[in-house]
Design a protein that fits this description.
218 residues; mainly alpha; 0% strand; Membrane protein; TMEM86B-like
Length: 218
């Protein structure tokens, strides 16, 4: 990566990580609810800035929008689960539109099978953990996002894995709403799983877009 690109764009990733780590360790501190909400949103918000700056064309705008809606969801969920869920639901729809634009050219039966498991299993587990029909409906979008990410030609061990980490983090959130008590796992793992997942998605998509653009220019 050119030195100019490093100096201009990597700071967005550094800011994202710094804000995410700061929120994780300060979330129980008495610094004020509003400040914590802003700090929480800043983590993925910085990933959105990175995506808008480094992404290319319409796909770059889409991944930037995915991260922007997710950052809004991060903040809104601190107010109500429904408000945050609405923002994330929209982000999943945009993510699916992006991933469907980049289908994988060759897939194996096992890869297709895992995509089906993600699509159908995600809402079922959402229902099992929460016993809530609205959350199960949200799980359809969540599972669709993960399945289309897995079947896209974005790197599976970055974008696909990131989507799966996102799913697991949401399952842990929903476990708080139903009869399954997983304490203290949700408190410890939700935020790291979620942020690492989003980081992998943003960087994986952006770097793939830039790589394909270079190939078109050659």
């Amino acid at each position: 990566m050119p030195k100019r690109a490093l100096s201009e764009h990597r700071p967005w990733l550094l800011v994202a990580v710094a804000c995410a780590v700061a929120f994780y360790f300060m979330r129980d501190e008495a610094i004020g609810g509003l400040y914590l909400i802003i700090l929480k949103g800043a983590g993925v918000g910085a990933l959105a800035a990175y995506a808008f700056h480094r992404g290319k064309g319409t796909p770059g705008i889409l991944i930037g929008l995915v991260m922007t809606l997710s950052a809004i969801g991060d903040m809104a969920i601190e107010l109500t689960l429904e408000a945050g869920g609405t923002a994330f639901f929209l982000s999943h729809l945009v993510a699916m539109a992006l991933y469907l634009k980049f289908p994988r050219h060759h897939t194996t039966a096992s890869q297709k099978g895992l995509a089906v498991v993600l699509l159908l299993g995600t809402p079922l587990i959402c229902w099992f953990l929460s016993q809530n029909a609205s959350i199960a409906l949200y799980g359809l979008a969540l599972g669709g996002m993960a399945a289309t990410a897995w079947m896209s030609r974005f790197p599976r061990y970055r974008v696909g894995l990131g989507a799966v980490l996102f799913v697991v983090s949401d399952w842990l959130i929903f476990s708080r709403e139903g009869p399954v008590d997983l304490t203290p796992i949700p408190d410890l793992a939700i935020w790291p799983l979620y942020f690492v997942g989003q980081f992998l998605i943003a960087t994986g998509v952006v770097q793939t877009l830039r790589h394909e653009l270079r190939e078109e220019d050659d």
